[in-house]
Amino acid sequence: MNDTPFRPLRIAILSISDTRTLETDKSGKVLAELIEGAGHIVHDRVMSRDDRAGIADRLRAWADDPAVEVVLSTGGTGLTGRDVTVEAHRDVYEKEIEAFASVFAMVSMRTVGTSAIQSRATGGIANGTYMFALPGSSGAVRDAWTEILVHQFDATNGPCNLVEILPRLTEGR
Fold first, then answer.
1. Which of 83, 129, 163, 166 has the most CB atoms in a 10 Å sphere around its CB?
2. Is 107 left (phi over 0), alpha (psi -120 to 50) or beta?
3. Nearest to residue 20, comparing CAs of 46, 54, 53?
């Protein structure tokens, strides 16, 4: 805990699926509830098909929107041929947050055991916007949020957090 007050972040959610709609997207709904329950703002929530260029275009649009501080996507992080979310994220990232994948794997090991190796969850930064690609299961979304992201998106979390460096992400550009 530090002396910095809590600051709500404006977060956009992108759910990737060829079969679900916003109404049937359980993971996106769970994520929105967790975000709002933590005191943050769901700025936008959109569905996208498993299309690398389309996903990257949506990520870039949010990275260019000063009202969006964080983008969380759900789905498309697996190993099948249709899973292109990670590649789309990496097409947009200026910097990758490599440790996110490692920490997420450690968290996942507690809930899904060695099946954690099937996730390619990733995080990065583009144009001063944090971006994280989460698996499509509601359990994985809940794990990523409650074990990692809720703490890093809380300015009161110590010894450090992602909120405190948010204003400095575009230094030297």
1. 129
2. alpha
3. 46
Query: 94 is in which domain, residue-wise?
Result: 10-163
170 lies in a domain?
no
> Over the stretch 71-125, which tens digit does the pLDDT of each residue have?
999 999 999 889 999 999 999 999 999 999 999 999 999 999 999 988 999 999 9
Distance CA 83, CA 100 (A): 19
Establish if 106 belongs to a structural domain.
Answer: yes
Q: Is the pLDDT of residue 1 over 60?
A: no
Tokens in use for 15?
């759910």
DSSP states of 60-104? HHHHT-TT--EEEEES--SSSTT--HHHHHHHH-SEE-HHHHHHH
What CATH number has the domain bearing residue 91? Answer: 3.40.980.10
Provide the token pair at 150.
Answer: 């809720």
Number of domains making up the chain: 1
Distance CA 54, CA 73 (A): 13
